[in-house]
Amino acid sequence: MSERHADGPLQPGDRAPNIVLDAITREGKIALEDFRGHSPILVGLFRGLHCPFCRRHIAAQAQLDAALRDKGVESLTVVNTPIERARLYFRYHPLPNLLAASDPERVSHRAFGLPNVEFTENETEWPRKVGLDVVMTMQVDMPGELPGPMNRPAASEYLNNKDGYEMTEVDQRMAAAGMGQLFGQFLLDREGIVRWTFTEVPDGGHRMFGAPSPQELMSAASQVAG
Question: Torsion over CA of 62, 64, 68 and 70, rounded to 10 degrees?
Fold first, then answer.
């Protein structure tokens, strides 16, 4: 069983690496090793809180926390935001029972094989690099959130304005370093083996800013819990 997929995200059957990160919503550290032998865990590796799409993905994962725990499955949210900035955000936007960790250096994303896509002017070699000419043609359609389909940068700006999210110097630094960081969710069994994944990597970028349905995620959790 392989420890790592150098050419892409970890896949079902791979052993997840141990990661040790600073806890946001409590004191101390959080290590994946702590869950091994005890419970399955859903690990959500998100971009920083500056990303409005990831803020929504985080809230969606948090909404499933109670249902996951009913099945004996824990849930961990990892964000590419420095600890103090992340703690400030969650103080004003609390999510009940959220277990979250800070990873501004994106160590966990690399360990799980999630690429940080390089943006170029017009050269695309997904998922290593993508041209801005391609990015500008990718439409985001979020009924109820956006007035209509918009390209990625415009949608991001619109949602940040809608949320009243003010980008700080820290946010801007994180965005500059990890602008192309792809996100993923990995469901691990009690032994730390990946059993289900959802990432932005497949489909040549068309999955960017998408997310699995709650039904898909809970169905996978039922299989792991069983």
Answer: 110
Q: How many domains would you assign to the chain?
A: 1
Domain containing 93: what range?
20-114+169-225
| CATH code where residue 181 lies | 3.40.30.10
Structure tokens that stand for 137 in this block: 């043609």
Q: Residues for the chain: how many in total?
A: 226
Share of the chain above pLDDT 70, in %: 96
CA–CA distance, 21 with 83 (Å, rounded to integer) = 10
Name the nearest CA neighbour of 182 among 33, 54, 96.
54
**Of 77, 99, 43, 17, the residue nearest 224 (C-alpha):** 43
Do 210 and 183 touch, CB atoms closer than 8 A?
A: no
pLDDT digits (tens, 9 = 90+) for 45-94: 999 999 999 999 999 999 999 999 999 999 999 999 999 999 999 999 99
∠ CA 50-54-56, nearest 5°, is 110
Angle at 47 between CA 76 and CA 184, to 5 degrees: 60
